[in-house]
Amino acid sequence: MTTKSTDINEIFARHDYGARALMPILLEIQEQNHYLPENLLRQVAEKIQVPLVQVYQVAAFYSAFSLEPRGEHIVTVCMGTACHVLGSQLVMDRLETQLGIHAGETTADGLATLEGVNCVGACALGPIVIIDGSYSGQMSPQKVDRLVKRLAKKET
Ligand code: FES
Predict the structure, then answer these.
(1) Which residues, judged by CB distance below 6 Å to any ligand atom, belong to the binding site of ligand 1?
(2) CA distance 20 to 25
């Protein structure tokens, strides 16, 4: 899996020290790596002088953070009731086939992480697929094929 390298000292230079720097530093690391690598969490704890367990508690509490490697793109399928009735399982099945992974997994090349979530509040437009925070409504397996092609093109 490919991940960008993080210059942790560049990140530290942009923030104060102490516990209040923890969230913004973690957000930058998450943004650059798509997850929070253990070695960087250890450096953060040491640098801002916060116990490592506290760093992990914050990282585990907020859904914005991941302790597991994630893909360059986050592909989310709403599996709520309304979207389910409108065919979200077919959409998820096609995404799993196209990406070669199951929900909750990341492609071996690091291109994408596939997730299922409950209602995202746009039921009338279901089935909903969210890619990197951008919503697409009334999805179908055919539209999924085009979405996946666009994702692959972004990488080339
Ligand atoms: S069930 Fe999918 S947006 Fe509500």
Answers:
(1) 78, 80-83, 119-123, 126, 128
(2) 9
The dotted CATH code for 73-154 is 3.40.30.10
- The ligand 1 atom at the shortest distance from the C-alpha of residue 82 is 1
Between the CA of 84 and the centroid of ligand 1 the distance, in Å, is: 8
Mutation test residue for ligand 1: of 77, 117, 123, the one with most atoms within 8 Å of CB: 123
How much distance in Å is there from the Cα of 133 to the middle of ligand 1? 15
What is the atom index within ligand 1 of the atom nearest the CA of 81? 1
| Range list for CATH 3.40.30.10 in the chain | 73-154
How many residues does this entry show for the chain?
156
Residue pLDDT tens, the chain, 156 long: 444 567 888 888 888 777 788 999 999 999 888 899 999 999 999 999 999 999 999 999 998 899 988 898 999 999 999 999 999 999 999 999 999 999 999 999 999 999 999 999 999 999 999 998 899 999 999 999 999 988 887 665
Classify residue 128 by its DSSP letter: P
pTM of the model: 0.75
